[in-house]
Amino acid sequence: MAKAKTDKPAADRQTGYHWRNWSREQRCRPEVIAHPHTREGLIEAVMNATTAGRAVKVAGSGHSFTPAAVTDGSMLRIEGMNRILEVDRPGNRVKVEAGIRLGDLNRKLDRHGLALENLGDIDKQTLAGAISTATHGTGAKWRNLSAQIEAIEIVTADGVLHELSEASDPDAFRAARVGIGALGAIYSVTMRTVAPFRIERFDRTRPLGEVLAGMDKLADELDHFEFYVFPHTDTALCRESTRTDAAADPPSAVATYAQEVVLENWVAGAFATVTRFVPASIPALSKLAASGSGVSRKLDHSFRVFASERQLKFTEMEYCVPRANAREAVEGVLEIANRRDLKVAFPIEVRFVAADDAMLSPSFERDSCYVAVHFDRHGEGHKPYFDAVESLMARFGGRPHWGKRHTRDDADLRGLYPRFGDFLAVRERLDPGGAFANEYTERVLGPVVEPVAGKKRRRRKK
C-alpha cells in the first residue's frame, strides 16, 4: 500500500556536520551523516559505517535530553523512513517505518480509522526515539508507548535485519522495545492499535493539599490524570481526562492558540527570562502563574488532546518511582524546589503509568509515578537542583527516564532492573563489537564485551 522510495544519492551524505538536540544542549560533529529512506538504504548505511570502522548512531528529532545519539562516527537520520507499510484492520495492527514522527503517525492512523491507546504530551519525536527511551503518557491503567509494540525489525552491525517478537525471540524483543539505541537501527515497528476515541479534558486548579491527599483516587477514577505544581505555591494545576464516545467539540483555533502557544510557551518563556535575571522574582511569579490558570475544557480526538505544543526550550530530569511512594516522593521534590537558593522557576510535573515487561522500562513490573523537574537550559544552574532530586529519588528505588538528564551509571542501574543482565546478554548477541555504543551507553550499560581470539576483553573508551 505504501509507495516505493529510493534513497538519495551519495552526495546526500554530509561531512563536518554539526548536530544538536532539541534543547540545544547535546552537540556533536559526525564524520558522516546518512539519510536512508528505505530498508535497503538503512542496511547499506549501517554496513558502510561498520566496514569503515566507524561507530554508528541513529538520530531522530533529537527530543532526548541525554547524549544517547551523540557520535563522531556515522549518524543515521531516519526521518525519511516514514511510511505506513501494512494495515491490519481486523487485527487492529499497523506496521510502520520507525522514522515517522508521532504526530504524523497519529494523523495517518486516524484516516485509517485507528488510534494508539495512549500517548505522551509531545508528538514531535520519531517513533524509534520514543520507544527506545520508554516515552510515556499518563493513566494508571495504561502502559508506556513501547508496550503497544508487537514486533520490531532491527538492523545490526553485520547488516542483518532481525524480526523480533514475543514468539520469535522474547528476550531480544523485550530488550529492543526499550533499547536506548544500543542494539541496532530500528527499521519498522508493528503496533497494536484501537478504534478512534475522543477525550474530554478539564484543566483546573485545585488546592495542593487536596491533590496530594487524593491523588491516588484521582489517578484511579480518571482515565488520564496529571498535575503540575509551581514552587512556592499551594496550588496544583490538574489535567483531568476521560475517554468518551461523544462527538468531538474542539475549542476554537483562537482559543487553542491562546492557551497552548501564547500562555504555555510565550508567557512561560517570558517568566523564565525574567527569573533568570531577577531570581528574587521567582516566588511572586510562581504565585501569579498558578493563580492565573482558570478552568478550560477540551473535547476532541484523542491524539489532539494528548499532545501539546512545546516551543519553550528547557532542560529536564524525570524519575519513575513505585506508585506506593508517589506522595512521599512528590512532597520531597517540592521541599527541594522551594529552597530559595536553588532558584527554581519551572513547575514539577507528576504522571502515572501502569507496569510493563520491557527489560529496561522504568516501569518494569511495577505500577509507577513519574516525577519530572525542569530548569532553564542555559548554563549549569540546574545541577544543584537536579542532584538533590536525584539523591531523593534513590531512596525510593527511582529509575531515570532514558530520554531525560540523569547521572546514574551501570553500577547504580544494575540493581534497579531485575533483568539488566539479560539485556546485556542480548546486547552482546546483537552488537558484540559495540558498533552502536557511545560514551552514554557505556556509562549506563557498562563497556561492551568483545570476543577476541577466543577470549573476551573490555572495549576501550575513546
Describe this entry's structure for a reader.
With 462 residues, the chain is an alpha+beta fold. The chain has a domain of 206 residues: 3-Layer(aba) Sandwich (Vanillyl-alcohol Oxidase, Chain A, domain 3), CATH 3.40.462. It has 13 helices and 20 strands. The strands form five sheets. The protein has an eight-stranded antiparallel beta sheet with strand order 14-11-13-12-16-17-15-18, with helices on both faces. Strand 1 and strand 2 form a beta hairpin. The longest helix has 25 residues. The chain is globular. 46% of the residues are buried. The C terminus is likely disordered.
Summarize the SSE layout with pairings:
Layout: E1 19-20, E2 27-28, E3 32-34, H1 39-51, E4 56-59, E5 74-77, E6 84-88, E7 93-97, H2 102-111, H3 127-132, E8 149-155, E9 161-165, H4 170-176, E10 185-192, E11 198-207, H5 208-221, E12 224-229, E13 235-244, H6 253-277, H7 282-291, E14 296-301, H8 302-306, E15 315-322, H9 326-337, E16 348-353, E17 368-375, H10 382-394, E18 399-400, H11 410-413, H12 420-430, H13 439-445, E19 449-452, E20 455-458
Parallel strand pairs: 3-5, 4-5
Antiparallel strand pairs: 1-2, 6-7, 7-10, 8-9, 8-10, 11-13, 11-14, 12-13, 12-16, 15-17, 15-18, 16-17, 19-20
Helix pairs in contact: 4-12, 9-10
What attributes characterize this protein structure?
462 residues; Vanillyl-alcohol Oxidase, Chain A, domain 3; eight-stranded antiparallel sheet; five-stranded antiparallel sheet; 13 helices; 30% helix; globular
